[in-house]
Write a structure and sequence with these properties.
Elements lengths: L2 E7 L3 H12 L4 E5 L5 H4 L3 H21 L1 H7 L4 H30 L2 E5 L1 E4 L4 E5 L5 E11 L3 E3 L12 E2 L13 E5 L3 H13 L3 E5 L11 H13 L3 E3 L3 E8 L2 E8 L2 E7 L1 E4 L3 E3 L32 E3 L10 H16 L13 E4 L5 E5 L2 H6 L4 E7 L4 H6 L4 E8 L6 E8 L2 H13 L5 H5 L9 H10 L14 E7 L2 E4 L11 H10 L4
Parallel strand pairs: 1-2, 1-6, 2-3, 6-17, 8-15, 9-10, 9-15, 10-11
Antiparallel strand pairs: 4-5, 5-6, 7-16, 12-13, 13-14, 18-19, 19-22, 20-21, 20-23, 21-22, 23-24
Bound molecules: flavin-adenine dinucleotide (FAD) and nicotinamide-adenine-dinucleotide (NAD).
Flavin-adenine dinucleotide binds next to helix 1, strand 2, helix 2, helix 3 and strand 4.
InterPro entries: Class-I_Pyr_Nuc-Dis_Oxidored, FAD/NAD-bd_sf, FAD/NAD-binding_dom, FAD/NAD-linked_Rdtase_dimer_sf, Pyr_nuc-diS_OxRdtase, Pyr_nucl-diS_OxRdtase_dimer
Keywords: FAD, Flavoprotein, NAD, Nucleotide-binding, Oxidoreductase
GO molecular function, one term: dihydrolipoyl dehydrogenase (NADH) activity
Length: about 525
Amino acid sequence: MEKYDLCVIGGGPAGYAAAMRAIDFDKKVILIEKDKLGGGGIYNGALASKTMWELSSRYRKVYDELGKDRADRNLDITYDEVKRTIDEAIFDRKFQLTCHLRIIHAETGLITYEKGTASFINNHEIKISKQDGSEQVVYAENTIIAAGSRPRHLPNIEVDEKIILTSDGLLELDDFPKSMVIIGAGVIGCEYATMYSNFGQTKVYIIDRADRILPFEDDDVSELISKNLEEKGVTIHRKANLKRIEVIDGMVEYEIDGVNGSEVIRVEKALLSIGRVPNVESLHIENAGVKMSKRGVHIGDVDTQTNIPNIYAVGDISGRIPLVNVGEREARHAVVKMFADFPVKPINYENVSTIMFLNPVVASVGANEKILREKNIPYRVAKVDYSTIARAITMRQTEGFFKLIVSDDDEMKILGMRAAGYHASSAIQSIALLMYMDKGIDELAHMIHPHPSIVEGVQEAARMLLGKSIYKSAVFRDKLKCYSCREGVCKPLNIIDESKHIKFEEVARHFHEGKED
Ligand SMILES: Cc1cc2nc3c(=O)[nH]c(=O)nc-3n(C[C@H](O)[C@H](O)[C@H](O)COP(=O)(O)OP(=O)(O)OC[C@H]3O[C@@H](n4cnc5c(N)ncnc54)[C@H](O)[C@@H]3O)c2cc1C
Ligand SMILES: NC(=O)c1ccc[n+]([C@@H]2O[C@H](COP(=O)([O-])OP(=O)(O)OC[C@H]3O[C@@H](n4cnc5c(N)ncnc54)[C@H](O)[C@@H]3O)[C@@H](O)[C@H]2O)c1
């Protein structure tokens, strides 16, 4: 029986990162993948969907800038063309990962790649069941489970991936559906609602049982995204209870109880996007003695380690935060914990940055107001509207905001940021780094940022909290906000004496009437 220092189960982003980090420690590794190298990081997941989002956003921008009449005549796009672009992106990434793996194998002899389904015989022996029916058993000193997740189904909804689909089947369609209902207005639901409505060939309906889309986000984020979806013709069913959904004459008929009472609607396709579940079943973790977490929903409770000391769980299967960047981080961490001869600090999940690919992009790090209110943590907020940022004005993209959240004390420790708007994703990293380095906002306020740049808006937010912003929140009240919140009560900060307050609108009218320059 072949022996390895490390067996990695699953060749998605987490598994691949684990295998490559183990090479750094000169360890002998076997990477087992049952389907395609790259997993959900490439296929039907991050890379594929973001390629579609990029194309749909560029398409929509050109469409809007040309104006409907000209755009309708000149801007035809077919689903085949969309899929071709996605396939090209998939190929590029797949090609890179595969060639890289092969070269590492040839040059170091440390890594073996096996295609097959892995399952535990015990905590050191793993069986690989191959597509040709053959089986192989390997011995591993340590194992990392990185078997990922799959879309959650509902017991009363039969998914055929042709008419009723999940994100696994959506990109296999032959054409743009004329109409589609999306069940679940979380990240996947809202991202696909954005993409399909951007292309303008699909009437999109979106259902959530919560009272708003993206229910885990603050109201301002949710409202901005809802407004833009609705402007593009998306119907949002809020607080909706899906009573029935069935395929009738090749069409999807669904019935909801919502704020408008009971409604029955027929559409061409349905997308189910109500969360994901870990791929545990094929692994037979019980043979190795690995237990599900205390909550029973994931494995690997203690800083990526399972209850069996030589077995770790990383990425989506760990059930913490299902993101590529988190999976890769957990994977690298688990390998270091396993092989390093120095102490390793536990992973800090407080400063994970994410981007939701919507209209506009929403980038996040750390806590939002909702989380802090739920935990009863006092906080201060500075919110800067894009319309006050020079770069946004030059881009003629003035929709969006930066919301910087800090602790409600003299230290003003950064607790989180939400950035919604053009280039928002490139602005989040400076805050993530400050959080990682446990720094306050002083450093940010004093740096000299390039001009004009969108990150000047983040800096202005920091300055506003320190009471030294260029624009004062008491003047541009609808564009700048600075307040503190404690036990559910929020109070404005930096306010000019109310009795002396001059309305901005009055000055603006005077400016226009006097034709001042
Ligand atoms: C539509 C969509 C969009 C997304 N967009 C983003 C995004 O923009 N940014 C982001 O960070 N994340 C995004 N995600 C999430 C991201 O794709 C996942 O978090 C990431 O792929 C998880 O990586 P993983 O390695 O843990 O699992 P996976 O990528 O699921 O890979 C697990 C692999 O394990 C294999 N496997 C399973 N069981 C076995 C077994 N018994 N033996 C051998 N192999 C096995 C599977 O075939 C699979 O290849 C998106 C997800 C979806 C669905
Ligand atoms: N850009 C990104 O980073 C990105 C993109 C896509 C996916 N992802 C990852 O994938 C994960 C899964 O995404 P997701 O959208 O499937 O899950 P999600 O947790 O983001 O959203 C699920 C939504 O479904 C709703 N819901 C649950 N049960 C329902 C029911 N019975 N009827 C109606 N609505 C119901 C919930 O209220 C929620 O809004 C995300 O948590 C995210 O980490 C990330």
